[in-house]
TrEMBL record:
The keyword Cell inner membrane does not apply. Its main location: membrane. The keyword Membrane applies. Pfam families: MS_channel_2nd. Keywords: Membrane, Transmembrane, Transmembrane helix. The chain crosses the membrane at residues 25-50, 77-98, 104-125, 146-165, 171-189. This is Mechanosensitive ion channel. InterPro entries: LSM_dom_sf, MscS_beta-dom_sf, MscS_channel_2nd, YbdG. Signal peptide: none annotated. It is found in: Membrane. It comes from the Bacteria. Residues 191-259 form the Mechanosensitive ion channel MscS domain.
Length: 424
């Protein structure tokens, strides 16, 4: 039937006293334009029908996956499939007398078909990614990275197919040539390959998720991960700046992920008070009686003082000199006070490690470190809790006749010299 139509057009042109060569060219042109117009109209009709059907179906369905299919133009690309197949079948009829042109037309349609398939795959993958991001248990997964990996394989397959179509060779021959040039290809695509490998390792080992708080000093990153792609990881710092980190750096360099802290029952407080060594002393009986008035340690002071007195009497200790026998020190009692204070603090997680420890003396005094965990892990609340604790402890030091170490000023040095001269 199609050959008959072609013959009718050709005979009509001959009857108009047109020479055979011109008639052949004009016949091919008329048929080409006619087929393209008919197929184009068909493509438009199919698109309108699919669009109407897909939009109405998306509105009525309970899931929102089909909404993402419409947004990412999946129905639009599907509408091109049937018209493209018709072009592949019909257009060669217009060029039966032009074998070379027929080959070019067929290759062009095959190339368009490959491009259409790639666009369709990309739209489907984007729809899947957008849908998965709406699921609560998938929000922190590096979906962009997964999609990019799939798209890389799709583009590689598509490019190999295009190469085979254009050159009229098989894909296997291309792979043979590719092997000979593998060293050059590895050098050119080194960053892409490293990013691909790193992205897979980061995903499999669950090293970083969307929303994780990470600290990467090498790149100046300190904030939450907002995006994980094949080549880069984006971090929004707490000052609202954005730091971009190469994905490969996450497996080649060291960084800190605070997810463990956020998943635990508390956030660590690890800070020390630097105490002046000269302020440390044995407690006298008067000092002990005064400290018994502090409610948090009154019971401890009673029990501990009684035990020490009993021990010294049983062993005949001469207490005319304070260093003899067992004694209480103001630093030891203060350490017990701090520990008791933390155990009674409502903002401290009592189920996690809690201790007050004395670190080795330094040129800047004796560090007395607090090691505990706040129940509230939010940054602003955590800072408030820690400040509140140390405000109290700094204010409590004078009750134990302890002093915080501070680097002396020139005035302090002068006053100390005057006191030494006066023998004070």
């Amino acid at each position: 039937m199609n050959n008959g139509l072609r013959r009718i057009v050709y005979d009509y042109l001959i009857q108009t006293r047109m020479d055979a060569i011109t008639a052949s060219y004009l016949n091919a042109l008329i048929l080409f334009v006619g087929i393209v117009l008919v197929v184009g109209l068909l493509d438009y009709i199919i698109w309108k029908v699919l669009r109407f059907a897909s939009v109405n179906f998306a509105r009525r369905s309970s899931t929102n996956f089909d909404n993402f299919l419409v947004v990412n133009k999946v129905p639009r690309y599907v509408a091109h499939i049937v018209p493209l197949l018709l072009l592949y079948e019909l257009l060669p009829l217009a060029f039966l007398d032009f074998e070379y042109a027929e080959g070019i037309v067929l290759k062009t349609i095959e190339i368009l078909a490959v491009i259409l398939v790639l666009l369709l795959i990309r739209s489907l993958l984007r729809s899947i990614k957008d849908y998965l991001k709406t699921l609560p248990h998938m929000k922190d997964k590096p979906l962009d990275s997964y999609i990019q990996v799939f798209m890389i394989f799709a583009w590689i397959g598509g490019l190999l197919t295009l190469f085979a179509v254009i050159t009229d060779t098989t894909i296997w021959k291309f792979f043979t040539a590719l092997g000979a040039a593998s060293a050059v290809i590895l050098l050119i695509f080194k960053d892409t390959i490293l990013g691909l490998v790193a992205s897979i390792q980061v995903s499999i080992n669950d090293m970083v998720r969307i929303g994780d708080w990470i600290t990467f000093e090498k790149f100046g990153a300190d904030g939450n991960v907002t995006e994980i792609s094949l080549a880069t990881v984006k971090v929004q710092n707490f000052d609202k700046t954005i730091t971009t980190i190469p994905t490969y750096s996450l497996i080649s360099d060291s960084f800190k992920n605070w997810r463990g802290m956020e998943a635990s029952g508390g956030r660590r407080i690890k800070r020390a008070l630097l105490l002046k060594q000269k302020s440390i002393k044995f407690l006298t009986a008067e000092n002990i009686e005064t400290l018994k008035g502090i409610q948090l340690i009154s019971k401890y002071m009673e029990t501990r003082n009684t035990n020490i007195d009993t021990y010294n009497k049983e062993h005949g200790i001469d207490k005319k000199i304070a260093i003899n026998g067992r004694n209480l020190t103001n630093l030891g009692v203060f350490r017990k006070y701090v520990e008791t204070y933390l155990k009674n603090h409502s903002a401290i997680n009592q189920t996690m490690t809690l201790m007050t420890r004395q670190l080795p003396p330094t040129s800047e005094g004796i560090p007395m470190e607090i090691y505990a965990f706040s129940s509230d892990k939010r940054w602003e609340n955590y800072e408030y809790i820690m400040a509140d604790i140390f405000d109290h402890l700094l204010a409590a030091l004078p009750y134990f006749e302890l002093e915080v170490f501070e680097l002396p000023t020139s005035m302090d040095v002068y006053l100390d010299k005057v006191r030494d001269e006066k023998g004070e």
